[in-house]
């Protein structure tokens, strides 16, 4: 055999292997929902006349139309229209009667970034379990004077709550044991959900029976379900600022108008403003470095916004930027690591800062959940994005970010 013949055979073999992998992928994914993965005209025709598709394209009533119209007018939700998400179902989930999952926080349960991430996970779990989702945050004080339901009524009251069969869940992982536990909750009416992390989250993605509900009934494909993609969708469906804090944000936003807004979240950890906070190593020079960086990259007429856990940094920024600095009045306190009274006073500013960051054109983050989740609510989250991680580094996409939060810099 000549060299060329051998080469030819190898190429043929290579192609055959590639083709086999390709076909098996198609077969694998098409087992989820044939109607969604119908690539051939013959089966398209079959499905287009079947009852499934008639349900899907059924004439939507005026209530549903108004929901879709409202969604279309919220820029952060609008971006999900191309994901084939079933908004109508998501806003009115199917639920079994008298079955609830209540995200509960009546003692320290994390900062705002950490909490909202857990709320998003809990909401998705409630969908899978066909339970009405409620939120009861009373630590450090109720959030209901700042936030109200946007599309999903998480503030209902349950009648005769004490008479219902209930349990409180503190720990939940993705193990087989915990999966079996979740499945066995069927006869419990109320789940008080106080789980401290998202260790169970992969159940939603990789347990076929769970994923099927999210995919088929709610149009949440696996690629949409990764937490950094789905976060803003669920957060916006759940929460809306009440009119008083909203008018505060609007007032400040008016000053931005068409000007460029550069922002930073400077979280330094334990400091005189937050004496009970944890000590973060390697953030000693973050205060001056981040502010100098913002000065370096901004033009003299651009606006600045600094969210920080230190009053010292706030006043330093005021000295550096003077009238260019936008600020939200209120006291600076970590909502989870201060006394209840002080933390409660700090809650409003914390939440307003979170909303303010969504208006930023340039953002310098800390390695913090608050930074990250506030940033994903920007219209273009990965544009002009930097992180302070032992110096300032640029981030160009979600994959890029994954290297920073828990790993080394
Ligand atoms: C479609 O639904 C109707 C009733 O709603 C039923 O009579 C019919 O058999 C269904 N057709 C198919 C193909 O399932
Ligand atoms: C939730 O509802 C779906 C659709 O009716 C059903 O397939 C699923 O088994 C239900 N799950 C639970 C935990 O009740
Ligand atoms: C829930 O929030 C809505 C919107 O703010 C409000 O109209 C309603 O009264 C609240 N329900 C309860 C039970 O607090
Ligand atoms: C919310 O929690 C508070 C305090 O833990 C409790 O008094 C209240 O009844 C709860 N509300 C609901 C609707 O569960
Ligand atoms: C609540 O309990 C009372 C007393 O047992 C009962 O009369 C009433 O019907 C219950 N309400 C609901 C909504 O179940
Ligand atoms: C939850 O897990 C922690 C350790 O991860 C353990 O100390 C605690 O007792 C567990 N709580 C419950 C209610 O199982
Ligand atoms: C920045 O932080 C360091 C210690 O971490 C402190 O010595 C210095 O005074 C701070 N600078 C400003 C301007 O706040
Ligand atoms: C700001 O610019 C100066 C001069 O170009 C440079 O020396 C300094 O390192 C820059 N600082 C930061 C934090 O980028």
Q: What features would you describe in this structure?
A:
- This protein has helices at residues 3-30, 41-49, 51-56, 62-72, 75-78, 87-91, 112-128, 176-183, 201-206, 208-218, 222-225, 227-238, 243-256, 286-297, 311-321, 340-357, 369-376, 398-401, and strands at 100-105, 132-137, 147-149, 166-169, 190-193, 239-241, 261-266, 269-271, 274-279, 303-308, 325-326, 362-365, 385-388, 392-395.
- The chain is built from 18 helices and 14 strands.
- By secondary structure, it is of the alpha/beta class.
- It is 46% helix and 15% strand.
- The model is unreliable at 33-38 and 40-49 (pLDDT under 50).
- The chain has two domains: 83-241, no CATH class; 255-403, Rossmann fold (3-Layer(aba) Sandwich).
- The structure holds 2-acetamido-2-deoxy-beta-D-glucopyranose (8 copies).
- Residues 50-51 line the site of one 2-acetamido-2-deoxy-beta-D-glucopyranose (NAG).
- Keywords: Membrane, Transmembrane, Transmembrane helix.
- The chain crosses the membrane at residues 7-28.
């Amino acid at each position: 055999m000549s060299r060329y013949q051998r080469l030819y055979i190898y190429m043929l073999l290579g192609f055959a292997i590639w083709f086999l992998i390709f076909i098996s992928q198609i077969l694998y994914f098409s087992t989820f929902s044939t109607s969604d993965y119908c690539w051939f005209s013959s089966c398209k025709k079959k499905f287009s006349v079947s009852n499934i598709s008639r349900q899907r394209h059924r004439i939507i009533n005026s209530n549903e139309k108004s929901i879709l119209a409202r969604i279309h007018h919220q820029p952060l939700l609008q971006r999900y229209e191309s994901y084939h998400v079933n908004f109508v179902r998501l806003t009115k989930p199917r639920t079994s009667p008298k079955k609830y999952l209540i995200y509960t926080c009546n003692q320290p349960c994390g900062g705002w970034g950490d909490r909202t991430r857990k709320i998003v996970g809990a909401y998705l779990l409630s969908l899978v379990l066909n339970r009405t989702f409620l939120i009861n945050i009373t630590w450090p004080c109720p959030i209901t004077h700042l936030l109200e339901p946007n599309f999903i009524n998480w503030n209902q009251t349950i009648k005769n709550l004490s008479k219902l069969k209930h349990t409180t869940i503190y720990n939940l992982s993705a193990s087989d044991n915990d999966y079996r536990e979740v499945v066995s909750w069927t006869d419990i009416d109320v789940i008080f959900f106080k789980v401290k992390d998202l260790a169970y989250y992969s159940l939603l993605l990789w347990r076929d029976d769970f994923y099927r509900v999210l995919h088929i009934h709610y149009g949440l494909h696996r690629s949409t379900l990764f937490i950094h993609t789905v976060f803003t969708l669920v957060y916006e469906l759940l929460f809306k600022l009440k009119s008083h804090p909203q008018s505060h944000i609007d007032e400040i936003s008016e000053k931005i108008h068409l000007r460029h807004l550069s922002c930073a979240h400077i979280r330094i950890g334990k400091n005189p403003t937050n004496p009970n906070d944890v000590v973060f190593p390697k953030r000693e020079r973050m205060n001056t470095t981040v502010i100098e960086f913002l000065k370096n990259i901004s033009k003299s007429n651009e606006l600045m916004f600094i969210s920080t856990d230190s009053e010292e940094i706030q006043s330093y920024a005021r000295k550096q930027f003077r009238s260019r600095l936008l600020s939200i009045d209120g006291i600076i306190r970590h909502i989870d690591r201060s006394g209840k009274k002080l933390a409660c006073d700090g809650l409003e500013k914390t939440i307003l800062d979170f909303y303010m960051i969504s208006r930023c054109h340039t953002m310098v983050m800390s390695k913090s959940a608050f930074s990250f989740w506030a940033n994903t609510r920007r219209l273009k989250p990965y544009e002009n994005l930097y992180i302070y991680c032992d110096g300032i580094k640029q981030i160009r996409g979600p994959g890029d970010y994954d290297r920073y939060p828990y790993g080394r810099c």
